[in-house]
Here is the input.
Amino acid sequence: MSIGIVACGALATHIGDIVKENSLDVVIYPLPPLLHNRPEKIAGEVDALLHEIKDKHSICAVAYADCGTYGALDAVIERHHVKRLAGNHCYDIFAGKTEIERLMAQEAGTYFLTDFLVKSFHRSVIVELGLDRFPHLRDDYFKNYTRVIWLAQVRTPELERAAIDAAKEIGLPLEIQSAGYSGLTTQVLELISN
Here is the structure.
């Protein structure tokens, strides 16, 4: 029984590790992670890819949370009769929805990073927002943020340095919280169960 997972590019490598560790017959179809900068396009891209792969697999699933689609992705999920990852965004998946809600209640101006965002911060955030060309806009973009929390899946010295640099680039203090992969692993295994 083969399984096809349409995955956010920011999660695809992690999901590949989970698939390998659990010896699963899964094909991962990643979409570009930069779609997060245009969340209104996510549902359409997922829909098109599900149409393309649905006859190739006995089960299909979607490895996205809502990710700023405001329910548009859920309409696609319902139409294709597939499951998606739970939560509003990947932060819920890694740290748990309750923990993210607690952190946001504690300080609403929290900017979250995952390992993927730490690794790709310059390209995904600085270049995409044009801050490499117009650095004076930094304070306009980030004026309502008060801190950065890196939800570390794997805390290494290299990633920690990159997280520190990312926080400096946007002028905010950094906090590090170990999140690990257990939330993602649990949800991926639930996605592919009958």
Observations:
- Residues 3-89+181-191 form a domain with the Rossmann fold fold (CATH 3.40.50).
